[in-house]
Predict the structure.
Amino acid sequence: MADSAFESRIEQALEDETLRRNFASALGAFAARRRSVFPDGRALERLRTQAAAIRDRALARLPELLEELESRLTANGIRVHWAETAAVGCRLVLEILEAHGVRRVVKGKSMVSEEMHLNAFLARHGIETVETDLGEFIIQLAGETPAHIIVPAVHKNRAQIARLFQEKIAGAPYTEEVTELNAIARRTLRERFREAGAGLSGVNFAVAETGTLCLVENEGNGRMCTGVPPLHIAVMGIEKVIERLEDLPPLLRLLTGSATGQRVTTYVNLISGPRRNADPDGPREVHLVLLDNGRSAVYADPELRATLRCIRCGCCLNHCPVYARIGGHAYGTTYPGPIGKVLTPQLLGIDRAGELPFASTLCGACEEVCPVRIPLAHLLRRLRAEAVRSPASRGDRRGSGRPDRLERLAWWAWGQAVQRPSIYRAILAGGRWLGGLLPPVGPLERWMRTHAEPRFSRRNLRRILRRQGIPDA
Amino acid sequence: MSLAPRKPARVQLFATCLVEAFFPETALAVVELIGREGVAVVFPPGQSCCGQPAYNAGFREEARAAARRQMDALAGELPIVVPSASCAGMMKHHYPRLFPDPAERAAAERFAGRIVEWSEFLVRGLGVRLHDTGPPLKVTWHSSCHALREMEVVPCAKALLAGLERVELVPLSHETECCGFGGIFSVKQPALCGAMAADKLADIQATGAERVIAGDCGCLLNLQGAIEARGLALRAQHLADFLRERTRGG
């Protein structure tokens, strides 16, 4: 019954009762924690306005701010690299690793590295990458991609994780105790931190004014990745730069509060350079790879630019009724949920991901919670219009979201009917005459998979109103 | 949240396409509830659909044509009362965005200023007092996404329900979660739409109420269709119809 690969993934996800239960319980808890950490609604609204303004201010001067960032980072001893595409970014990382003869890498959580498919690329070049964030560690063991941008293994429950550990980690007993599971992961990872020739990480914000990379986390693995191995390579999307150090506190407050409902994360790492001579530890070299990968094109459109405000908190996922029911994998993209539906077609091209913006009821629950006030529903509508306007291309036309000829014809006819009162009234009269006897084909067939056939009313509203003496004008 | 002008002598009714085709009694209920307060209702005959279906489907040109038609058909200065929050939201918040031309945009903004969702008009514009004449009844309420987040009129609807002395309102546990309709979404993603509707129905059933009241015809079409397909002993009803039923002869 599914018309596209996306639709069949959706149908599969909907049939997976365990998956739906796992998501429903996890997301419900996140939403509740967010409410408790922001008890004052008005204060939250002010903070959101402030954060949106901070992000807009930075984006308004993005090109010069990136130059400022580069010069400050360089002055701090951090080497900056520019990657126009994911492929270039992967190659840059590989070159740095190869120059140091590194074969083993420990890695902190980074969605940009997922976007680059960096692990697979490095593996093809004989470099082993070990994910050290617990969630990422779990999905790496399972051979999966993150199901959520903050909580990568949110789709798995404790029993599933216990079985996975027992299966994949030598000597691991079956246990559903969180502390024991944590201990197993910690024991396994501790060795990896010691052996690794380099640490890879993402970046939450980069401060142009001071040349500082900010990274928040709860497990300490980020600090280990960025501090223990002799080489640290950070990857970051070019939009994550902010102007000043003082911009950081409100953004961090909103990021952690919106993401996990915490006031502050256990670790807030501010990285401002490699080990200095007197320092007892820290990496000898720090590199930053700045990834564009389509962001410049997003930036160029004044309306779509709001997409780049995103601070990747995942709050829109946590509050999305579609995401809650199908989870992250069904989207088939690096970034799932509302922000994924907005960002992905812009990064990959509307012809490759145009179907995504249509998989929303436009309910606005995401917009209501977005800490930087991205007008997600509005951007989804805009991208739908892009899909309609996009030229025909080969490949999966359904997946492109581009309406087929029949749909275009239907909307043309609809346009004629709503513009011409005589046609419109004739259609209403036809409906009254037909009642519910429409043939169940096309959209009606799809409606009737889960609904009874809609029945036109037999009553003529206009005639009744006239009889009641309601004037026409 | 805009305030309707204080008790105008007359208002225009924009029935909406869903009401005309599927729920004409809802328009009649709105006319009666407004008429009782001494306000005359006029029905401009050139009206059709607000254009939201095309707008949300990405067909901007067709949506613009629909918007022009309504702005033309509903010309004048009178407030325009709309019995569905999502259509009202389209006309109030999205019409101005449809027109790049400054003159047309200005006209759309003036038009948007006249749009008032019916329950808000009853509460804030007319200050209605209801007299409940029905038997004791338990109902539940579904907040439509557009009533809640776009028109912000849910407090008005709840104030009207609270005015019914013998009606007990049992809240849903996920009152503000979308019912899954989403216009074109319901036919582009039928499985998702069905799953969301099913969850909403389960939530409704868990309240023990046999009736769910809402203020948006899209949600009602979705919920009633899903109820009938499952043969459940539930009923989805527009708030205006419910108010008319409860205050008949009062």
Notes: The mean pLDDT of chain B is 96. Chain B touches chain A through 74 residues (CB under 8 Å). Residues 190-207 of chain B form the longest helix (18 residues).
